[in-house]
TrEMBL record:
<dbReference type="GO" id="GO:0030247">
    <property type="term" value="F:polysaccharide binding"/>
</dbReference>
<dbReference type="InterPro" id="IPR048510">
    <property type="entry name" value="WsaF_N"/>
</dbReference>
<dbReference type="InterPro" id="IPR055050">
    <property type="entry name" value="WsaF_C"/>
</dbReference>
<dbReference type="Pfam" id="PF22772">
    <property type="entry name" value="WsaF_C"/>
</dbReference>
<feature type="domain" description="WsaF N-terminal">
    <location>
        <begin position="372"/>
        <end position="523"/>
    </location>
</feature>
<dbReference type="Pfam" id="PF21374">
    <property type="entry name" value="WsaF_N"/>
</dbReference>
<dbReference type="InterPro" id="IPR007739">
    <property type="entry name" value="RgpF"/>
</dbReference>
<dbReference type="Pfam" id="PF05045">
    <property type="entry name" value="RgpF"/>
</dbReference>
<feature type="domain" description="WsaF C-terminal">
    <location>
        <begin position="560"/>
        <end position="692"/>
    </location>
</feature>
<protein>
    <submittedName>
        <fullName>Rhamnan synthesis F</fullName>
    </submittedName>
</protein>
Length: 737
């Protein structure tokens, strides 16, 4: 890590090195131990008044769409509209009815009230204002405005595609709420342009279920579950929704909104009656009506719809407004809608604090219907791109070539993206939600990643597969089904993190899912995974020599060079055993050892770490062409891998004619790959030192002779051989729904 810092300092300068260091430390919280993390107020179960606390959107996420929209003239607006008004206060109804003149489309007016006297006044007011298409019903005074609209008019929703809920709202219990009613009406029916804009949103998005005003500013700090959580939880459970207080609380405060009738179906199907509501006694909280008001959006999501908040641009406080030209703009859904089925507090739980790679992604629903192939990678930093990532990128390109009608996106999970990282991705846009080729930086988990219905994902490590399952769950809740996926298994990674929480998470990713294809890297690994997990339907990627390395290996005279794959940060490569074994060999054979150079490739680190190895050097991470030159000249290779995967470097060494020391593991018999292998059954410094003596003796016979390349043998495997076309067809079925 120090060597990498020095490299960045030399190549990019002090400012870049400092910025990258701060970004690294910011996410590696386990190294910055604090006594106790502060408990977010959202986690508190109750507030000081005993009401159930709520998680509200962060200010930067609390976005409303600015209305009216500039361009709605080309949009065909819905005409089958119901306007449902509960008019308990007829004096307010006289004011409210004037707003209805702003609805340019034909609509049917339904009004509820509490007695015959009010009914006559309402009918007269409607006729005076030119509304003869009115039906007035009388209901007992129960359930405020909620019960009359949901129960009293339950029969009318199937007749109308779109509805508007209004009522003659008064809030006599709080003086600061003066102006709330006018604010709501202004943002729903304040002008013909406002109404036209809202109806255009419904026409442009058939999965839009509810549109309501951004919360009246004086009440924003008062929004919580109150004493309604348990009632709402029981109510939503009947619609198969498991409510958590950690999910965001969003609802049309004031109970006025536009909606699509289909979005209320789960609520209407509950069969509630007026008797379910308490007798009116001036309650300000804790009733079924209050619980339903806070649950409208949940019921809409139950039905597969989403919602939007709007705010008239004439209102003050323009912060948090999204401005677009047209109702079909994809940014509307991605920026305004915040799914209520998510649990944002997961980001602050212990797993996310302790293990940076397990921090949950922040996701946003997208209306883009174009299918997209996504690759989840830890990094694209060239310093940390090794064989596994290179193979994943190659596979991604092969599948992209088969899926030409798919967009493609590389999601970088675990490292920041610096400008020079994009040198190999010149045709990719950064962080775009609608580009055909995109690199998306998810490192800091601040930016919300858009998710499409027809997104398909390739995970490349246990933690990216764990995150991929959360994306699948998001798709299922947002779109009704989860996408096909590929789990590119490049090792049995649970063993890297044994007997821990991470081991348990890693192990969980190997469960069977018919929508997830296993793509297993190497024949040996396929046999191991089949034996452990019983999977016989794997697609297997047999070892293939990298073409750049293959072309670069030349027929040169072999020299006394020992090539070591040295990665101190990768425990499975047994760096310490390699160093100690080499030292023991040198001490036991000083005269012979003095003739040989020891070269460590693979990772940049300080030379002091190979002490007391003599004649050693650490070129570290080199390009493929330089690596091929070393392979052409070296005579002995050392590359250990404590896993069922054979690893690329020892196979590349053996192909290039090096006498190569590597190890067996479980069913992995490395010598089956090439006669150039010297295999270790037990991996210790002493066994390595003995293998060095044998390898050097064999290599001495070839010193000065031109090296001969020797093809690596293919081995039997469990499953079918990877075919890009066949795997692409498996993924393509997702986009044909």
């Amino acid at each position: 890590m120090v060597a990498r810092g020095v490299h960045i300092l030399r190549t990019e300068g002090f400012q870049s090195a400092g910025a990258r260091t701060l970004r690294f430390l910011a996410t590696r919280r386990p190294f910055l131990r604090v006594k106790k993390p502060a408990l977010s107020p959202s986690f508190l179960l109750f507030n000081k008044d005993g009401a159930t606390n709520a998680r509200r959107p962060l200010p930067e996420d609390d976005i409303a769409l600015r209305i009216p929209l500039p361009s709605t003239t080309d949009v065909a607006l819905p005409e089958n509209i119901a306007v449902i008004v509960h008019a308990f206060y007829v004096d307010v109804f006289q004011e409210l009815i004037l707003y209805l003149k702003n609805i340019g489309q034909k609509f049917q007016l339904y009004v509820s009230t509490s007695d015959e006297i009010k009914k006559k006044i309402i009918i007269d007011l409607c006729l005076e204002n030119g509304f003869d298409n009115v039906e007035v019903r009388i209901f007992e005074n129960r359930g405020r405005d909620i019960a009359p609209k949901i129960i009293g008019f339950s029969d009318i929703y199937e007749k109308h595609e779109i509805f508007l809920h209004l009522h003659t709202k008064k809030s006599p219990h709080l003086s600061l709420l003066q102006g709330w009613r006018d604010y709501l009406l202004g943002n729903l029916v304040g002008s013909t342009e406002v109404v036209r804009s809202i109806l255009a949103l419904f026409s442009a998005d058939q999965k839009l279920g509810v549109v309501y005003p951004q919360h009246f500013y004086p009440i924003r700090g008062m929004l919580n579950w109150g004493f309604d959580f348990e009632t709402a939880q029981a109510l939503l459970a009947k619609a198969h929704w498991s409510l958590s207080k950690d999910s965001l609380l969003e609802f049309p405060s004031g109970s006025m909104f536009w909606g699509r009738s289909a979005a209320l179906k789960p609520l209407l199907d509950l069969g509630l009656t007026f008797d379910d509501f308490p007798i009116e006694a001036g309650q300000v909280d804790g009733t079924l009506a209050h619980a339903i008001e806070r649950s409208y959006l949940h019921f809409a999501e139950c039905a597969g719809f989403h919602w939007l908040k709007v705010q008239n641009s004439a209102d003050v406080r323009p912060q948090g407004l999204l401005t677009v030209e047209k109702p079909e703009d994809s940014r509307i859904l991605e920026k305004v809608y915040l799914p209520l089925f998510e649990e944002p507090g997961r980001s602050d739980l212990s797993m996310g604090r302790e293990y940076a790679e397990l921090r949950p992604l922040r996701l946003a629903k997208s209306n883009n219907r174009r299918p997209r192939l996504n690759l989840l990678l830890p990094t694209i930093d060239p310093l940390w791109v090794f064989g596994g990532i290179s193979t994943a990128l190659k596979t991604f390109d092969e599948l992209s070539a088969q899926l030409l009608d798919f967009d493609k996106r590389i999601v970088v999970l675990d490292s920041p993206i610096e400008p020079h990282h994009l040198d190999n991705f010149q045709r990719y846009k950064m962080n775009s939600s609608d580009g055909q080729a995109v690199v998306f930086e998810a490192f800091n988990r601040i930016r919300r990643m858009d998710v499409r219905r027809d997104d398909v994902y390739i995970s490349t490590a246990w933690w990216s597969e764990y995150l991929r399952t959360s994306i699948g769950q998001f798709q299922e809740k947002a779109f009704g089904s989860r996408s096909k996926a590929v789990y590119f298994i490049q090792d049995y990674e649970s063993n890297f993190i044994q007997w821990s929480s991470r081991w348990a998470i890693a192990e969980s990713t190997y469960g069977f899912d018919e929508n997830v294809a296993w793509l297993v890297n190497s024949e040996e690994l396929s046999s191991y995974m089949s034996q452990r997990f019983g999977r016989t339907d794997q697609m297997v990627v047999p070892f293939r020599m990298n073409e750049t390395i293959k072309r670069g290996v030349k027929s040169l005279p072999k020299e006394r060079i020992i090539l070591c794959y040295g990665r101190p940060t990768a425990a499975r490569n047994c760096f310490e055993i390699v160093v100690d074994g080499l030292s023991l060999w040198q001490q036991r054979n000083p005269i012979e050892a003095s003739k040989w150079q020891v070269v460590f490739l693979g990772e940049n680190f300080d030379t002091s770490r190979i002490w007391p190895v003599q004649n050693g050097s650490v070129p570290g991470k080199v390009g493929l062409e330089e690596y091929a030159e070393y392979l052409s000249r070296a005579s002995v290779g050392v590359s250990l891998m404590i896993s069922p995967h054979p690893s690329y470097p020892p196979l590349e060494m053996a192909y290039s004619g090096l006498i190569t020391i590597s190890n067996n593991y479980d069913a992995k018999e490395i010598s089956n790959r090439s006669e150039n292998f010297v295999a270790l059954d037990q991996v210790t410094p002493d066994s390595l030192a003995l293998a060095m003596e044998r390898s050097v003796k064999l290599a001495e016979e070839k010193i000065g002779r031109v090296g001969v390349q020797k093809e690596i043998a293919e081995l039997p495997f469990v499953g079918i051989k990877y075919d890009p076309w066949e795997l692409a067809e498996f993924l393509r079925k997702q986009s044909l729904r």
